[in-house]
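Can anyone check this?
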Amino acid sequence: MTHFLDQAQIAAILSTYGYWAIFIVVALESAGIPLPGETMLVGAAIFARLSGTIAIENIVVAAAAGAIVGDNVGYWLGREYGTKLLERYGHHVGLGPEKLRLGQYLFYRWGGAIVFFGRFVALLRILAASLAGANHLPPGRFFIYNATGGVVWACVFGFGAYYLTAGFEKIEGPIATALVGGLVVGLFVLWRYYKRHEARLMREADAMLSQRQR
């Protein structure tokens, strides 16, 4: 976790802006701006436990609401502008038309899981919603997985930090490391699967996109 904000700064921000500070920081991070949303959530939960001046339930609600709203903004931006950017500049990074079609297909099949679990990984927390929008994950499916992921994430890190206080900070680092490690392994497995079944996946992608365009 990046400690862009320390506990004293978080306490000062909460004293001035209240729960809105949690909502705004988490929402901006979820929309694609690299801000320390998780740090704010955990710090606010610890502050609530130690000070008793704010309610942990309201912190969790503010964080969950910020995650859901911010992700929806990121999804819309990705859907409106991300596709055009990928189509225009994707070939510079090896993303030609075929790869873009395949990306849409993969998000159609597994995009919900990426959105849900991405909430728990720092980089994906910033990018998952925009990628889902750019790859045309159906809006209804996105909203369900996004809302579920936002609520579960806010509860796990909010209530976890509140009830464990300093103990949670000790285990948060290993949890994040394990999640990143799992992500790297998962990406490698997916890459190997793609290389072995590239032709079939491309046929399925073309068939799926043809049906959706009818």
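Reply from J.R.: I decoded it. The mean pLDDT is 79.
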